[in-house]
Design brief:
This protein is mainly alpha-helical. Helices cover 53% and strands 0% of the residues. It has a domain of 77 residues: Orthogonal Bundle (Chromosomal Replication Initiator Protein Dnaa, Chain: A), CATH 1.10.1750.
């Protein structure tokens, strides 16, 4: 079996999202494919949610960008982060803007201001 630290060096050109996901997969004795795959095992889901949380906490990538790299929908990322925070008693890493007045492109009257 090849040395894991040696095999991880070949992934230096990965995006920061996938690099962090790879690190979290490694810490949880998972493959990157398991973390980005469709598996529903509790250990895999918990590690995946931890990755979502760490990515939201340590990067400025949008939830949609994180979702694309983890093969998920942005709503799944938001829910996964919320589940991780609830399970560990953590605050949300960043606010979640809902559509409406909080949106920078929508006015109070409902019309859009896209410049």
């Amino acid at each position: 079996m090849p040395d894991v630290s040696t095999s991880l060096t070949q992934f230096k050109s990965l995006s920061p999202i996938l690099q962090l996901a790879l690190d979290i997969a490694h810490k949880n004795d998972l493959l990157l494919g398991e973390l980005t795959g469709r598996g529903h095992l509790k250990a895999v889901s918990a590690a995946r949610q931890a990755a979502m949380y760490e990515l939201a906490l340590t990067t400025t990538y949008s939830y949609s960008a994180i979702a694309r790299r983890l093969n998920r929908n942005h709503a799944t990322i938001i829910k996964g982060i919320a589940q991780h925070c609830k399970r560990h008693g953590l605050p949300l890493p960043r606010p979640v803007r809902s559509k409406g007045v909080d949106s920078p492109h929508e006015r109070v009257d409902g019309s859009h201001n896209r410049e």
